[in-house]
Structures are given as structure tokens and as C-alpha cells.
Amino acid sequence: MSFSLKKSCSSPQGSRWNELRVAALILIWTGSWLLVKIGIVEDVLVSGWPLWAAITASGGLGLLAVWAYLKHLGGLDELRRKIEMDALALAFGVGMVTGLTSSLLGDAGVLPWDEMVSYLFTVMFVTYSVGVIVGHRRYA
């Protein structure tokens, strides 16, 4: 088994491995983000090169996950790509509306904006997941 991201494979087996690679990279990136976040909140990473190295490494892992996802999309058939794109569009739209509404509520002093940002991304991830599930059921 090769974990090279150079080629996208359109076979069901290759597509499954691409999905697993993307999921693994997203989990690794999310874990790195969480560790950096905890390090900042707990004053372990306060300033200097360790803070910047941790932030840069986490951001780099995030970009690697995005790149892997784009490669994965390139290997999908038209129907699966449509399902993914519809789910992404839904998540983006819900995220925009939720984010801008939360921003207004933060400006009005109703909600603490700093705490809402993490929930915003959770809403987007859940919306994307539901969109993929609904899309697969719709076209199955």
C-alpha cells in the first residue's frame, strides 16, 4: 500500500484509499490545531519561535489536508464530485449565514464572538457531513 498523493485513482479501491488518506490528514491536522490551541490557552506556548513554529506546522498540515482533498476530488466520478460540491456549497452557505449572524449578535453584545468561532466551524463540518449523506441517499 502506497500513501503517495501524486496519483488519483478512479477505481473504488483507489477512491477508498484516497478517502482514508484525506480523513487521516484531517484528523492529524485537527489534533495539531487542538494541541496548539491548548498550548496557547494554558500559557505553554506564549511567544517566540516555539509558538510560531507550532502555528506554522499546524497551518502547513491544514494546507496538506486541503491539497489531499483536492486530489481526492479529482479522482472521483461526476456523480460523487457533484455530491461533494453540493455538500461543500451547503456548508459554505450555512457557515456564512451563521458567521455573519453571530458577528452581529457579538457586536450587539448578545453573544461572545470569540467563543462562537469554534462553534461556527463545527456547524460547517456537521452541515457538510449531512450534505454528503443526503446526497448519497438521494442519488443511490
What report would you give on this structure?
The protein is mostly helical. It has 2 domains: 9-76; 77-140. Helices cover 81% and strands 0% of the residues. It contains 4 helices and no strands. It has helices spanning 12-41, 49-74, 78-107, 113-139. α1 (12-41) packs antiparallel against α2 (49-74). The protein starts with 11 loop residues before the first helix and ends with a helix. The model is unreliable at 1-9 (pLDDT under 50).
Q: Top keywords for this entry?
A:
single chain, 2 domains, 140 residues, mainly alpha
The CA-CA distance between the termini, in Å, is 29 Å
Number of domains: 2
Assembly type: single chain
> Please, how many helices?
4
Give the H and E element order. HHHH
Please state roughly what percent of the residues sit in beta strands, choosing from under 5%, 5-15%, 15-25%, 25-35%, 35-45% or over 45%. Answer: under 5%
Parts with pLDDT < 50 across at least 5 consecutive residues:
1-9
Major sheet characteristics: none
How many whole angstroms does the radius of gyration measure?
A: 18 Å
Number of strands: 0
Helix content: over 70%
Shape: flat
Mean pLDDT: 87
By helix and strand content, what is the structural category?
A: mainly alpha
Outline of this structure?
81% of the residues lie in helices and 0% in strands. It is built from four helices and no strands. It is flat and about 50 Å long.
